[in-house]
Specification:
- By secondary structure, this protein is of the alpha/beta class.
- Helix content is 42%, strand content 17%.
- Strand 2 (29-33), helix 2 (37-49) and strand 3 form a beta-alpha-beta unit.
Length: 249
């Protein structure tokens, strides 16, 4: 089993305890995601420390304020690290507007081009900005491997699939009221499907209310397997193949 996204935010990088707990649940690989200059480095350090861990480096839209050429140069340098498997999270977040929209757009556009230059997958965050995010990807990301992280727009699923994107579901797909999201998870082709924790957020229903961690991705995978009416093992094997192809495991 693979946890395809683990935030580096208040949780810090995966440590030995979290990695061991994940392994006990059969989670053999973890992609941890940097948010800014400091957490990108923490993520890469974790990837150096644990062979199970790979890293995505990027500038999250909520941390995009003041993004400039120096920040882009820093991302270029970090993306060259052999343990960096993807670029992002990047995208647009209008929910709280922690960063000016012009800065978010500049960082987003730059990271699209970084993914193109490095030939690495692009991990997308979007919140309350679906129209602008999808429009930007349509205009600028042609030919890239695009992962829609923590998928939250089931009404646009067909559009994302038609564009060839990968769709990743977090623990919120397990919530009783997330009916439309669950229907989307049942429809994504197996070779386009990923699962994730988005730790420390969105703990799946069996552990809801607790800080999330990579081990909990198994709850999300089991629910999606149930929705699709396939054995857990079939879902897990498909996710592992897909993640291995995308991220180079």
């Amino acid at each position: 089993m693979i946890d395809s996204h683990t935030h580096l935010d208040s949780c810090g990088p995966p440590n030995a305890e979290l990695v061991a707990a994940a392994a006990r649940e059969g989670v053999a690989r973890i992609l941890t995601v940097g948010m800014d200059a400091a957490t990108n480095r923490s993520a890469l350090q974790a990837a150096e420390d644990f062979p199970q861990v790979l890293t995505a480096v990027g500038r999250h839209p909520n941390h995009a304020e003041g993004f400039d050429d120096a920040d882009l140069a820093d991302l270029h340098a970090l993306a060259a690290h052999p343990r960096c498997a993807a670029i992002g999270e990047t995208g647009l977040d209008y929910f709280r507007d922690y960063a000016p929209r012009a800065d978010q757009e500049r960082a987003f556009h730059a990271q699209i081009e970084l993914a193109r230059a490095t030939r690495k997958p692009l991990v997308i965050h979007t919140r309350a900005a679906e129209d602008d995010t999808v429009s930007t990807l349509r205009e600028r990301a042609h030919g890239l491997e695009v992962v829609m992280h923590c998928f939250s727009m089931p009404d646009r699923l067909d559009e994302c699939l038609a564009a060839g994107y990968w769709v990743s579901f977090a623990g919120n797909v397990t919530y009783p009221k997330a009916v439309d999201l669950a229907r989307a998870a049942a429809r994504v082709p197996l070779d386009r499907l990923l699962v994730e924790t988005d730790a420390p957020y969105l703990a799946p229903q069996p552990v809801r209310g607790q800080p999330n961690e990579p081990a909990n991705v198994v709850h999300t995978a089991r629910l999606i397997a149930e929705l699709r009416r396939i054995p857990d093992e079939e879902l897990e094997a498909a996710v592992e193949r897909t993640a291995a192809g995308l991220f180079g495991w």
